[in-house]
Design goal:
Helix content: 40-55%
Structural class: alpha/beta
Shape: elongated
Distance between the termini: 53 Å
CATH topology of the largest domain: D-Maltodextrin-Binding Protein, domain 2
CATH superfamily of the largest domain: Periplasmic binding protein-like II
CATH architecture of the largest domain: 3-Layer(aba) Sandwich
Strand content: 15-25%
Number of helices: 12
Number of strands: 11
Oligomer: single chain
Order of helices and strands: HHHEEHEHHEHEEHEHEHEHEEH
Length: about 300
Amino acid sequence: MRISLKQIEIFLKIAKLGNMSQAAQVLGLSQSACSMALAALESQLNGILFDRSGKRLNLNERGRVLLPMAINLIAQATNIQEVMLETNSQWLAGELVVGASTTIGNYLMPHIVGNFVLEQPRIKVNLQVANTEQIVKQLLNFNIDIGLIEGDCNREELELIPWRQDKLIIIAAAEHQLAKKAKLTANDLEQARWVLREIGSGTRQRFESAFPKKVIPFLELGSIEAVKQVVHSGLAISCIAKIAVTESLKSGQLVELKTPFLKLTRDFSILLHKEKYQTAVLKRFIQACLLFKVNHS
């Protein structure tokens, strides 16, 4: 049995896109060439790898078993090139798909990724920003190489590396009535109108675990900037990462409400799939993240 890397590459592209013609177009092949390669692979493996529904191809149980092995096979082949290039150059080469939850993606990753690609100009980084729940799902499905999250994750398939601490704060507009009160109580916050991040976000998760009573928000928004704008308008207060409002606090547009009775610190974590092969590029990026923790903690 001779399985080629090209067959595996075609299998992975079809698995990702769920469509033969789209996979062929992305790979620069004819649809018939793609179809023949998949048929040959399925014949060599003594069974089909996809369930067909019209033009849609969905991984079946056999395909899902093959998926992590195929990803690792391509990763190891790529790693051979990376390592060989590194012996003749100070730079690695390759591509990395990074998933980051919203606060990390918007306020930390631009610095980390920017410095990383300056140091490693032959590496292309594709950054995907979503909430914690979505990042975990992407990592479980092997759609990203590494995840950086601000929420909890207890999936046994994933390795969690503690990264850095973050602080959440309660914010209000400078003219909000609670901003003028000398000492706040939990009851003051319970009676307030809230705008919160959507369900599934790490910020929302940490807030709800820290607050003694369930808050039914006036608004739920998927954007940190949108939350900040609602708070600035005076319509509601919110709980948000301090790093997301540094400039607004300095300018006086927003104020931090002092709430010593709430524990609003949280941990940021690096997530890796235990079955995913770690290439030289991935290892170098993990190192860059950990060094950023040391230099910017």
